[in-house]
Amino acid sequence: MPILFDTETIDNYLNGNLDSNLLALFESEIDSNKNFVEQVFCQKMIKETIEQHDKIARLQTIMSQIYSRHTDIQKRVYTTKQLTKQFKPCQYYEQELIAAPMRSSKYALKVIEPQKEANFDNELFFSFDMPTPIVCNLIIEDNEETIVEQYDIAAGSTNFTILLNNYLPGRYYWKLDIGDNVLMDSIFVQKNLMPE
Amino acid sequence: MPRYNNQQVLHAFNTLDSVFIEKVYNEMTPQIEHYLLKNGGRKENAADLIQEVFESISKIFTNNDFEFKNNASYSTFILSVAQKKWLNFLRKKKTEQDNTDQYTQIGLPDKEQIEETIFEAEIKKLIDFSIAKLNKACKEILFMRYQKNMSHKEIMTELMLNTEATSRERLRYCQQNLRNNITKNADYLQLIAEYYPFILKSIKQK
Questions:
Q1: pLDDT for A139-165, tens place per residue?
Q2: Interface mutation target, options B13, B15, B23, B26, chain A, most CBs of A under 10 Å
Q3: To the nearest whole angstrom, how far is the Cα of B59 from the nearest Cα of chain A?
Q4: B188 to chain A: nearest residue by CA?
């Protein structure tokens, strides 16, 4: 004859709050009654689902925003003319980069990544050879010298990541402002779309 | 090589760090797509699969007791969940290629943990549906008890009930109601039958 345990006793078991006598009875019921096992498991899942409920609901909102951003990107279509324009080198910056390669500063900070003209599809990753000595301002410009975005990189950072969801395919120039010193180079976003 | 460490990823899901979660999404999406395309899937299957995978891992990563077993990295874990879900989908569809063993096997860190992850996420999804069907009063008392960890005395005061016994009785009634809704579901019963050994192990761990 199965023993009947109420939901409060099941909760106490799940919380580890049963006294040894009741625990022995409870465990013996688990060993012999499949329906009871299911009931305890169901109660455990109910408890966890409710505990996590608000967090999961907020995560679902975050995830839907991420999905829709990615779906929008996948739906974007470009003409060859648009792409040619977006990937065209900026003559002024290109000459500057040839004249004075700017990948290290008076603070001796060197930018390890991104490499010159590296390609990025989803995110742009910066890494430095030492922690940034002060707060640095990172500016990303497109090939028409228009600022796309600016970021403050906290002092003491050795890396920094930028999500590229809102970046069109094309050629970009980054500038890292460290005090009165500016480091600069070029990168590509979705270089696979660059016309021949 | 995964870009982040397991703790960073679990922390991001638990603190709802949307920027970091998107980084993980960006890292994993091409890998899942690549796996899918190499294993009989099409680009259009990828979006659905990726959504399902992130839905499952959200439910698991936000569980306080969760930890990666056998030194698995989060990226191998997520990719393994994608693989398992894809193989389940193929089995259900009974496609022309029934022998799913031929598909690329990712080095599963712990096959059992992947199965359990998917199973638990499915069960929690079904429970979520059943909770949504409850009346307002039942939802209220269940959330007070299990989310806010309120005692019956506190619930009694909050809901202006006469006695603690009334609170107990109402909670019991709502739990029974919820359980009846859950156990009416054929998918739930099928999952329970299929995963009985895991269920037993899961409750004995407590």
A1: 999 999 988 888 889 899 998 888 887
A2: B26
A3: 7
A4: A42
Residues B16, A47: C-beta atoms closer than 8 Å: no
Compare all CA atoms of chain A with the CA of B15 and give the residue at the minimum distance: A55
Q: What would the pLDDT profile of B153-185 be if each residue is shown by its tens digit?
A: 999 999 999 999 999 999 999 999 999 999 999
| Domain definitions of chain B by residue range | 6-110, 134-204
DSSP class of residue B108? -
In this complex, do B19 and A163 lie within 8 Å of one another by their Cβ atoms? yes
Is the pLDDT at A23 greater than 60? The verdict is yes
Cis peptide before A131 (omega within 30 of 0): no
Nearest to A164 by CA among A133, A187, A130: A187
A121 chain-B contacts, CB cut-off 8 A = 30
Domain A80-193 = CATH 2.60.40.2550: yes
Look at residue A180 and give its three-state secondary structure: coil
Q: Which amino acid is at A74?
A: Q
